[in-house]
UniProtKB/TrEMBL annotation:
Residues 142-234 form the HTH LytTR-type domain. This is Response regulator. It comes from Sporocytophaga myxococcoides. It holds the Pfam family LytTR. Keywords: Phosphoprotein.
Length: 245
């Protein structure tokens, strides 16, 4: 089934490059219009009511987020962000499980992103964008994708994460554990910082939920009662945190 798309990007060369890739690798995507900024992008969306929007992050008259915030109603289209290098934006997208493409766009990743986008419901996309907007001043919520749904979790309610093959089990305050269809490595890269620490190849913990440390057993007792092993390789980093806080 053909899907209509618009490209919003202030670089004409990027627009032409992306349109060429779509014509070649995604023949079911019909580019019906393009725009070069926030104002013209809003006009193009209103005029065409597209199924899919490729949205540049940084433009001369604003950022792509501005378009989403200025829409009069919840978006009824899928969004794939396009960015050159903005690390903060990439992290924001990953927190919300939103797709993004790095310039220059890789054809294989483009096909994957389009395939995923056309399968996501408008409601799910609208919810992801809401989380993105709420996280504007800090990543307070995270979207956890499972096989059949997306679970929205407060970051400060994550007690710990445990590797389970290519999946990750999230243990949350006041919620049942969530089996998430991403690896622990991905969440380590996303969450590690002031509050989260990888203490074992299979365990990422929220340091604010540490209750006790048992040196003899090299284990941490979490506030939910779980005993989590601290590996020898990561013990020094963990102990440094304990003594400095």
């Amino acid at each position: 089934m053909n899907k209509s798309a618009i490209i919003i990007d202030d670089e004409l060369t990027s627009v032409e490059a992306l349109r060429g890739l779509l014509n070649r690798y995604c023949p079911d995507i019909n580019v019906v219009d393009f725009a070069h900024g926030v104002v013209s992008g809003l006009q193009a969306i209103e005029k065409n009511n597209p199924d899919l929007v490729f949205l540049d992050v940084e433009m001369k008259d604003g950022v792509g987020f501005d378009i989403l915030q200025q829409l009069p109603v919840e978006p009824r289209f899928q969004v794939i962000f396009v960015t050159a290098f903005d690390h903060y934006a990439i992290k924001a997208f990953r927190f919300c499980a939103l797709d993004y493409l790095l310039k220059p766009v890789d054809p294989d990743l483009l096909v994957q992103a389009v395939d995923k986008a056309v399968k996501v419901s408008n409601e799910a996309m609208a919810n992801k964008i809401k989380i993105l907007q709420k996280n504007k001043n800090g990543n307070e919520k995270i979207v956890l994708p499972s096989k059949d749904e997306f679970f929205v979790a407060e970051v400060n309610e994550i007690i710990r994460c445990e590797a389970n093959g290519n999946y990750t089990i999230f243990y949350l305050k006041n919620h049942q554990p969530q089996l998430v269809s991403k690896t622990l490595k991905e969440f380590d890269e996303l969450l590690s910082g002031s509050k989260f620490l990888r203490i074992h190849k299979s365990h990422l913990i929220n340091l604010e939920f540490v209750e006790r440390y048992l040196p003899k057993d090299s284990q941490v007792i979490m506030k939910d009662g779980a005993r989590v092993e601290v590996s020898r390789r990561r013990k020094d980093v963990f102990l440094k945190y304990l003594f400095n806080n």
